[in-house]
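look at this fold:
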Amino acid sequence: MLISEIFYSLQGEGELTGLPSVFVRTSGCNLRCTWCDTPYASWNPEGTQQGIEAIVAEVQRHPTGTWC
C-alpha cells in the first residue's frame, strides 16, 4: 500500500474532536475532489510502499487509547 504519511495529532472534526488520533494518509487517490487538501497525495502520488503489519506497528507506537 502506498503511504504518504502516518502522523499523530488531535482529531479536529466531528464527534471525536479533541481526541488523540493517528492518521494514515494513503497516496494515489484518483477521485480529484475539488475540496482535497492533500494534492501531494493524490495528484502527484508520493510515499513509500508499506505492508499492513508495518502500518499497524507504526500506529500502535502512539498513545491514542482504545480503538473506536
Observations:
- The two ends are 23 Å apart (CA to CA).
- Residues 39 and 62 are 26 Å apart (CA to CA).
